[in-house]
Design goal:
Distance between the termini: 34 Å
CATH superfamily: Jelly Rolls
Strand content: over 45%
Largest sheet: 6 strands, antiparallel
Radius of gyration: 13 Å
Number of helices: 1
Number of domains: 1
Oligomer: single chain
CATH class: Mainly Beta
Order of helices and strands: HEEEEEE
CATH topology: Jelly Rolls
Number of strands: 6
Structural class: mainly beta
């Protein structure tokens, strides 16, 4: 598992030009149908599990796994029975 701290994750993300860095916590068994965001994301799973589907490819993500989703890319999210927490950096579309 990745042993980085939130502060280290935030500093690295800001150095890479991300505008916002935050912690997202999702309740158990939450399902988000296909949607898009007006920003790109880089994230690190820190607790629980999720399934991320992009371009019909589903990934099972657990603590220590990283993922990215580019601006306006359709994707779906499903969170495990224990919920999930990840740190996410967002870069707005300019």
């Amino acid at each position: 598992m990745n042993s980085t701290t939130f502060d280290a994750f935030q500093a690295e993300a800001r150095a890479q030009g991300f505008d916002e860095v935050l912690e997202r916590k999702w309740p158990a068994s939450t399902v988000l149908d296909t949607h898009t965001h007006p920003f790109s994301v880089k994230a690190l799973m820190v607790e629980g599990e999720m399934w991320l589907t992009v371009n019909d490819i589903e990934r099972h993500l657990q603590p220590g796994d990283e993922f990215t989703v580019e601006i306006n890319v359709p994707h779906a999210e499903r969170y495990g029975p224990g919920g999930a927490t990840y740190w996410v950096a967002r870069r707005s579309g300019r």
